[in-house]
Amino acid sequence: MEAKRFAKKDASHTLLVETAWEVCNPVGGIYTVIHSKLDAVLEKWGANYCLLGPYFHDRAMSLFEPLELHSNSPFAKTVKQLRKMGLEVHYGKWLVQGRPTVILFNPFSLMNQLDFIKQDLWKYHNIPTGHCDDLLNQTLCFGQFVKLFFNILAQKKITTKKIIAHFHEWMAGSAIPSIRGGNLKITTVFTTHATIIGRYLAMNDSNFYKNLHLYDWEYEARHFNIEAQTRIERAAAHGAHVFSTVSEVTGRECTHLIGRTPDIYLPNGINIERFEALHEFQNLHKKYKDQIHRFTMSHFFQSYTFDLDKTLYFFTSGRYEYKNKGYDLTIEALAKLNWKLQQINSDITIVMFIVTRKPFYSINPEVFHSRALMTEIRLTCDAIQKQVGERLFRQATKAEDNKLPSLDLFVDDYWRLRFRRTLQAWKSSKLPPIVTHNLVDDNKDEVLSFLRSSNLINNQHDRVKVVYHPDFISTSSPLFGMEYGQFVRGCHMGVFPSYYEPWGYTPLECIASGVPAVTSNLAGFGDFASKKIRRPNEHGVYIINRQEKDFYEAANELADDLFQFTLLTRRERIKQRNRVENSSVSFGWKNLIRHYEQAYTLALERLK
């Protein structure tokens, strides 16, 4: 729907309070959504904006700066009143760009009221929360804090301004029924980023989307033991003045599983300035690709070699949701791509990185040992280079002719022997491992099982090589020694053909970095991009049609797209990276924040 945007002058007479379990608490994708849009929000709302979140001391230490309550703002006044009630409330700044005001509640400090909170939810809102896990109990206490906060904030002695309360996900939504039931002069917006039942069903039903209209939500909630969470989610969705979600794909899910069609869609944007490299992004690609080359040499070249100038780096990353994230489809397509490249006797090598997080015991000792020996070879070569350079220079100054002398004569026996022994210790007849770590459940891991059954085991003749890295990449990673964003820039393509993905930040981060990406039209971002970009393939955004095609048809489409990408010349890939980077502006928060403003306008209209 289209509604008028929220004018800055209107924002000066309105308070906006955003509530989420992920405020100062980086446990999921909503953390990225909220903190990445802060610049766009604060530009309009300024001091009339604050966020509510849970207080966990260990996480707050690095993300939260406490402040004294010298301010006379409505938020500070409310905190003072809560503290007078003996409640543990923390007031300060979130240490992210923009440094917005945040108010954090310690859920554990209300655990002595948990029985009362549960009785209240059952008595007034028919939400059963009898036997709950620790997380649910914490969210219920957090919700009680939020309820008390708004009860005070809405008092005339605190503020006469209008109040918009925006809640994200069921973890923050338990206060909405009480706010509506208490007839507080507060208008509410509730955003579900993914229905809780939908995520469970999609992992267990290969025909999830076809069967959407057949599910009995009560039966499924009990079956997956998530009845309390589901009822909180439904109560928040039905109780809010404005109900929203992040994409039309998830909107259809909401209609069937929550029983309310969203009033508006709030697509997730990205902070383009964080990725902006102006004319440098092509140079950065080369710089970080060279760092990935060093990993590739240490991982593969002890067994066999291939031409790094004709090597393309693909990757996929995200939570380990084998089917939902499309890891199964990706591996199936890679096997087909491997066959296609062998059929045409291609000299291109694809190295595919699968980056996710799974329990592991340690880095594979052989992988670590190879990396260490590569470092030793590098140091030995540097020493030989220095020695040869010095001696060659001296010889050149006293030479009677212009001939280049034999460089072998300038290397000491010590370095010759060390060079030979290091290389001999490094070389191996084994195939390069397909996984970099020793997994806890190696025999049960679905990614490993599919790679082995597909015979993607890094044979020398394979044109597609695989590196399964079951830990996120960071500067502390001894195998890569680079940030995840740097790794993304060094790759040629990101592959994310998700089956269940309400939005999907990973392809968007690729595009903002000037890296082509694969998504699917079952992912919220892919569906949104298909409507925003004409001829997306030409702009480096490959959208796999998983809505209309079955698994094997979609795998064939993905394999074809990857194959066509391998046929591009280097100049054509550079042009495509330019087009990808230029298209990222469409997905920046400065452009997409208008959807939030439309939601707030609608919320105020409904309060009247």
The largest beta-sheet arranges its strands as 3-4-5-2-1-6-7-8-9
Distance between the termini: 20 Å
Fold-level CATH name of the largest domain? Rossmann fold
Low-confidence stretches are none
Outline: elongated
Percent in helix: 40-55%
Q: Taking all residues together, what is the mean pLDDT?
A: 92
Instruction: Give the number of DSSP strands.
Output: 17
When the domains are counted, the total is 3
Structural class: alpha/beta
Q: How many separate helices?
A: 25
CATH class of the largest domain: Alpha Beta
For CATH, the homologous superfamily of the largest domain is named as Glycogen Phosphorylase B
Q: Architecture of the largest domain, according to CATH?
A: 3-Layer(aba) Sandwich
Radius of gyration: 28 Å
For the largest beta-sheet, the strand count, sense and barrel status come to:
9 strands, mixed
User: Approximately what portion of the residues adopt beta-strand conformation?
Assistant: 5-15%
Give structural notes.
The protein has 25 helices and 17 strands. The model has no long low-confidence stretch (mean pLDDT 92). The protein is elongated, with a radius of gyration of 28 Å. The chain is of the alpha/beta class and 608 residues long. It starts with 7 loop residues before the first helix and ends with a helix. It folds into three domains: 8-271 and 591-607, 3-Layer(aba) Sandwich (Rossmann fold), CATH 3.40.50; 282-362 and 437-587, Glycogen Phosphorylase B (Rossmann fold), CATH 3.40.50; 376-393 and 411-431.
